[in-house]
Amino acid sequence: MTRRGSTTHCLVSVHNYNIMDMTILEAMRSRRSVRTYNRAPLDQNQIELLTGCVASAQSPFGGRVAIRLRLFNVAAGYKPSTYGMIKGASDYFLVAFAKGDRCSELTAGYRFEQVVLKAWQMGLGTCWIAATFKQTVFEEGVRWPDGLSLQIVSPVGVAAKERSLFERVSRSVVGSDRRKPFGKLFFESDFSTPLSSESRFGESLEMMRLAPSSTNSQPWRAVVEGDTVHFYYVDKSKLAMIDCGIGLCHFHLTEQYRQSDGRFEECAQHPAAPKGVKYLISYKANAV
Ligand SMILES: Cc1cc2nc3c(=O)[nH]c(=O)nc-3n(C[C@H](O)[C@H](O)[C@H](O)COP(=O)(O)O)c2cc1C
Q1: Strands 92-98 and 149-157
Q2: Measured in angstroms, how far is the CA atom of residue 213 from the centroid of ligand 1?
Q3: With 24 labelled, which of 2, 7, 117, 170 sits at a CA distance of 20 to 30 A?
Q4: How far away, in angstroms, is 156 Cα from ligand 1 center?
Q5: Nearest CA, atom 9, ligand 1
């Protein structure tokens, strides 16, 4: 992925941004779900870049996940159904198969989001879809390892100039343009003291805050203790682990961008969580 010192070149105007190089942080800040596309096909270079990213995306959480870039020959009448949610998609969809355990779901979120961000850096939109697609159509003709099931699909293509009415309504219904305030998600020492956004982990947690999640639920919470961040999740949705994988991807890529890598580990000693909130994992920063 893009780090400080290495670049991804976007030589044309991308998402109405006139930029030459979109860093991974800019991609996290500007990305949004795209549900209305301009029907333009992907070119060979885009297909190769995306396929390379699908193959190379890594996760620290293990588990079993298979991600594919799938071609649907729409001209030949093969129509991937998203029940009208997506308009004007290209022939290509990203699909993710995963086992149903916690590590696999974290990895599915973490790895798929790397591809989503790479697509955005290339000027391509995506939309995570977990519920509103016809499973049999997306599974047909594709091979994936035994024991995995289809969890996520996403169109990938160029955003249309205007959003469909359906897209505008669905963004408004789930409040896609609003994220919870930083101080309501992230804390210092315990769950009663809001963390300052100026703190050592402020930028990485801010990137987690901006991550996409199912129905914009933002289940991630964190408590910082010295050089350790303890992560928690609100245990309300079946998609919480995938959502947390996405949030942790944003957090970790930002740590790596800042060249302050660390490691994820389970920590038996962590601050007690309020009702409905469960401990997930901790991140220990390496000494600089
Ligand atoms: C795991 C996951 C599942 C999602 N499932 C759907 C879906 O089934 N249909 C849909 O229209 N959007 C879906 N979304 C998109 C979210 O509604 C969207 O990410 C959220 O509202 C935030 O908006 P943004 O992505 O534009 O920042 C999903 C997102 C995630 C992360």
Answers
A1: antiparallel
A2: 6
A3: 170
A4: 14
A5: 129
How far apart are the C-alpha atoms of 281 and 278, rounded to whole Å?
Answer: 10
Q: What is the pLDDT of residue 12?
A: 39
pLDDT at residue number 139: 85
Instruction: Find the residues whose C-beta lies inside 6 A of ligand 1.
Output: 32-33, 85, 127-132, 170, 174, 176, 212-216, 239, 242-243, 246
CA distance 233 to 213: 12
Question: Looking at the whole model, is its pTM more than 0.70?
Answer: yes
pLDDT of residue 19: 43
The domains found in the chain, sorted by start residue, are 24-171 (3.40.109.10), 182-285 (3.40.109.30)
> Which of 150, 147, 126 lies closest to 137, judged by CA?
150
- Rounded to whole angstroms, how far apart are CA atoms 37 and 15? 12
Q: What is the pLDDT of residue 18?
A: 39
Return the pLDDT at 76. Answer: 63
CA 174 / ligand 1 centre spacing (Å): 9
Q: How far apart are CA 191 and CA 185, in angstroms?
A: 9
* Low-confidence stretches of the chain (pLDDT beneath 50): 1-20
Pocket test for ligand 1, best of 114, 214, 237, 246 (most atoms within 8 A of CB): 214
